[in-house]
Amino acid sequence: MATPSLTAASSNLDSKPQLDKKPGPFTLVAFFAVLAMGLLFTAYSLVHDMHELGTTVTTWTPFLLLGVALLIALGFEFVNGFHDTANAVATVIYTHSLPPQFAVVWSGLFNFLGVLLSSGAVAFGIIALLPVELILQVGSSAGFAMIFALLIAAILWNLGTWWLGLPASSSHTLIGSIIGVGVANALMHGRDGTSGVDWARPPRSATPCCSRP
User: Fold this and answer.
1) Taking Cα atoms as reference points, which of 113, 90, 109 lies closest to residue 34?
2) 129 and 192 fall within a common domain
3) 177: containing domain
4) Are residues 100 and 29 in the same domain?
C-alpha cells in the first residue's frame, strides 16, 4: 500500500503545469519597461552615431525602413523564442523542476549572457555569407530588401516546420536563408547563381552548428 507522501509526490508529477496562467501586473510593467528602454537605447545610439558623423537628415525613408527591419527582426526573435526556447525549457517545466514563468526568464537571461560573453565567431562567420556588394550598401534599398527577404524567409520556414511538427534550428534556417539571398542576388544581376555565395564559408559556419545538440 502506497504511503500518503509517495501518493502525493506521484500525483504532483503526473499533474500538468499551469501554462495558461495570465501574467500579473508586475510582469506586464516589467516587460513594457524593458521594451521601452530597448527602444530608447536604439534611438539614442542612432542619434549619437549620426551626430558623430555629422549626417544631415534629408529624408525619413531610411529611418522608416530601418524601423520596419527592426520590427521584422523582433518578429524573427519572437518566432525563435517559441520555436527553440520552448524545446529548451519543456523538460524542466513538465518535471516541475521550475515554474513556467521562471523557466522562460531563466532561459532568456542565459541566452542574453551567452551573447554578451561569446566571441561572436559564429555570428561573424554567418555575416560573411552575405553578398559583399549588399553589405557595403546595407543602407540602400537593395540592402533593406536583402534584410527583409532573409528574415521573412526564416520566419516562414520556422512557422512551417513548427506547424508540421518538424525539428528545425533557427540558426540553420538563418544560414539557409542567407545562402538563398546570395544566390537570388547573383541571378538578379545576370550572373551564375553559385557565384553569389563564397562556398568556402558555409562549411565553416556549419561545423559548429552541426557539432552541437
Assistant:
1) 109
2) yes
3) 59-210
4) no
Structural domain includes residue 35: yes
C-alpha 80/C-alpha 105 separation (Å) is 15
- Structural domain contains residue 11: no
Tell me, yes or no, whether 123 and 47 share the same domain: no
pTM: 0.70
DSSP string covering 168-191: --HHHHHHHHHHHHHHHHHHHTTS
Which residue shows C-alpha cell 529624408?
A: 59
Phi-psi region of 18 (alpha: psi -120 to 50; beta: other; left: phi over 0): beta
Looking at the structure, tell me whether residues 95 and 163 fall in a common domain. yes
Contacts with 18 (C-beta within 8 Å, 6 or more apart), sequence order: 100
At 29-65, the pLDDT tens digits run 988 898 899 888 888 888 888 788 777 777 778 778 8
Residue range 72-105, pLDDT digits in tens = 988 888 888 777 777 778 888 888 888 887 888 8
- Beta-carbon contacts of residue 170 (< 8 Å; ≥ 6 apart): 76, 79, 80, 83, 84, 154, 158
Residue located via cell numbers 534599398: 141
Question: Are both 122 and 179 inside the same structural domain?
Answer: yes
Structural domain count of the chain: 2
